[in-house]
Amino acid sequence: MRKIATKITAVLLVLIVVLSASACSARFWDYFLGNFPDIPKEPTQEIVLTKGTAKTQTGGLADVIEEIYPTVVDIEVKYVYNQAFFNKTYTESLYEMAVVCKKDEDGVYFLTTHQGTQDGENKAIAGSIYKFSRVEIYLTLGSKTFQCRKVQTMEEVDSVLLFVEKDRLGEYYDDIRVAKFPSPYEPEKGRTVVAFSNPYGVYKGTVTKGIISSEREIEVEGKIYTLLQTDAAMTFQSSGIVFDGEGRLLGLLFAKVSGDYEGLSFAMPINRILDAYHGAGYLEDIVV
Hints:
With 288 residues, the protein is α+β, with helices and mostly antiparallel strands. Helix content is 20%, strand content 40%. It has a single domain (61-279), classed as Thrombin, subunit H. Strands 1, 2, 3, 4, 5, 6, 7 and 8 form an 8-stranded antiparallel sheet that branches. Strands 9-10-11-14-13-12 form a 6-stranded antiparallel beta barrel.
């Protein structure tokens, strides 16, 4: 009986070994042939993001900036000089920003600063006198440029009104949005402002943040102006365009304190800019 039991045990052990080997061999060939078995996964929770969810955590300012972007554009101001004797032309470029103030069936109107687009003076270049010829202003949208036309200049508020025809803008016309205007214009001390600029023509779409300090009278080049003071960083290498924390246009950079202190800039208030144009018969449908 013991021998029979021992034989039965041996047979069972052999069967177990054979079956195990077969299972391992089958698994080996499955992996070898790329027939990977399905591995059960732990259930995952679907994450649904709604617009503004993440941005709201930063106070919503990111949403405001995103809304402002289609209302501001880069412009290149070309100064053209001629040297008559040698029939040569010399050009210089400055880079500014403009804000969309009006859009109708004829085209689009933009506001920018006068100091960045005013006429130039004759230049001495390599011993020759180049006479100032003209200023050409080009609007940049995407990869295309469009030459602008000066409609009206208001030196008293350092502003220029530019225009581009709808037909020339083509498909870009629909993408351009008009800036929001405050109604009424009531800048409050301590309110958030954001400033858009294009320093040196290199840092396009630069946005800085600050607060309103006050509206105050300051003297600039012998004249007294009532200007909006803010600590938002801006540079005279580019027109600065100032909006409030709700995305409404407050003004255009007019002056800044030079020297060691950088947080002191002054904008010409939009209500004064519009008053000047209204007096000349322009932008009368925009009231703040």
